[in-house]
Specification:
- By secondary structure, the chain is an alpha+beta fold.
- Helices cover 17% and strands 30% of the residues.
- It has helices at residues 4-43, 161-165, 273-279, 341-350, 356-365, and strands at 51-55, 70-76, 83-87, 91-94, 102-109, 117-120, 128-131, 144-146, 154-157, 177-179, 191-195, 198-199, 202-211, 217-228, 230-232, 242-247, 259-262, 299-307, 317-324, 329-335, 371-374, 388-392.
- The longest helix has 40 residues, at 4-43.
- The N and C termini lie far apart (126 Å).
- Residues 35-46, 163-171 and 387-412 have low confidence and may be disordered.
């Protein structure tokens, strides 16, 4: 007969074995449940979709891809705060937890590329890019803003591949981006979100001929009224608020001033070099141009300005502020009021649909420029001890402004 001590030892051993068995069983249960949950999370479709933004750039329309990438903004269709994703110039993955299943509209734009452009808006319909105001504002006049140079701002809404491939250029419609609640395995391909950016800024070139004293010009700046303050990102169309755009302070990509003077340019070989290599301006092949220089006598001032576009309901006045070597200012103005020579040429450069091809076609007909104006009353002199010379080019006493059409190259 077992003694009392042996019985106690046997009972204690039995309890230990039972505890170890229970612990092993619980561990196996936990391991089994973990594997089961992992399998479910990978294969039963309860995961949020993997998303990848892909940005398609049109060949021959982009001088340089945005070095700091693009911003994508998702707007929930049923309201709520938008979600932001910053990706590379060609796209990238969207953070897994950024979006919930549901319907979205989306915008993709170059948020980082231009310090003189700001953004505002809290919905897909109200998102706007706009020019930075200058520090000097004239009471009762249009807002004065800085030119958004460099003149690249790429914007696009979500369209979708099928819609783009089956639509004519410029007629694509924004689509709803629907993210399903089930997407299948983690190994399944990511949902591709395509964007096709376009530049919403427009560059206009100008030539002032008949100027006297180009050899004395030290630097030039300018401004033009009646330009749109910004554009709506969803449509890419200019806003209706007019502003006066100040331009010419920033140098071009080649490091040269974007407004330059030429003394006796008739004796310079007129070629594409004058526009592309000196001022970074896009021009037609000079072989397609007539010998426009024969019609444009005197010295020249040529340059460009960058804008979201013109406001249809207001006039356009171009002002040049030309400084001689001693820093004295000579000011000249064209357009405004009943003078339509600036406005009419801007409208012709914009064309019927506003396409780049229409603008280049107008330049081909207009001797390589968007705006050509006579400057016979603009005479720059060496230092005379004065301070400011102001010339109002469109206020001739006898007969009003000069008809510029005879001085333009014939329509081809």
């Amino acid at each position: 007969m077992k003694n009392k001590q042996e019985i106690l030892i046997q009972a204690e051993s039995s309890n230990i074995l039972q505890f170890l068995s229970s612990a092993l069983y619980m561990s196996l249960c936990v391991l089994f449940m973990a594997c089961t949950m992992r399998t479910l999370s990978e294969d039963d479709g309860c995961r949020i979709p993997r998303l990848k933004v892909v940005i398609y750039w049109e060949e021959n329309t982009v001088r340089k891809l945005p070095s700091d990438g693009m911003r994508v903004q998702f707007f929930p269709f049923d309201g709520g705060d938008s979600r932001l994703a910053d990706v590379g110039a060609r796209g990238g993955d969207v953070s897994q937890g950024l979006l919930n299943p549901g319907d979205y509209t989306a915008l993709c734009y170059d948020y980082f590329g231009n310090d003189l452009i700001q953004f505002r808006g809290d919905s897909y319909e109200t998102m706007e890019a706009f020019c930075t105001k200058t520090s000097t504002q004239k009471l009762g006049c249009e807002p004065s803003v800085w030119e958004p140079y460099p003149y690249d701002l790429y914007v696009t809404e979500y369209i979708g591949k099928d819609s783009r491939e089956n639509s004519a250029e410029g007629s694509e419609k924004c689509e709803m981006l629907t993210l399903p609640a089930t997407i299948g395995s983690r190994k399944a391909p990511a949902i591709e979100i395509p964007f096709y950016p376009r530049n919403v800024l427009r560059e206009f070139t100008f030539l002032i001929y008949g100027v006297t004293g180009a050899a004395y010009i030290g630097r030039s700046e300018g401004e033009i009224s009646g330009m749109a303050t910004g554009c709506m990102l969803a449509s890419g169309k200019p806003t209706s608020e007019p502003s006066t755009l100040k331009f010419g302070r920033e140098k071009g990509c080649s490091g040269q001033p974007r407004i330059q003077a030429f003394e006796n340019p008739q004796y310079i070989e007129w070629s594409k070099y004058m526009l592309t290599d000196i001022l970074d301006l896009e021009a037609p092949d000079p072989k397609l141009l007539t010998n426009s220089a024969d019609y444009w006598d005197g010295d020249w001032i040529i340059g460009s300005f960058c804008t979201f576009g013109a406001v249809d309901t207001v006039c356009n006045m171009l002002t040049l502020e030309v400084y001689n070597m001693q820093g004295e200012l000579f000011c000249a103005r064209w357009g405004g009021g009943i003078q339509e020579e600036v406005r009419s040429q801007i409208q012709s450069a914009m064309g019927r649909t506003g396409s780049r091809d229409e603008q280049l076609e107008w330049r081909r007909k207009n001797g390589g420029f968007d705006i050509v104006l006579p400057g016979y009353d603009l005479e720059i002199k060496p230092s005379t001890g004065g301070s400011v010379f102001e010339v109002d080019v469109d206020s001739w006493e006898d007969g009003g402004s000069i008809d510029i059409n005879p001085f333009l190259s014939p329509t081809i």
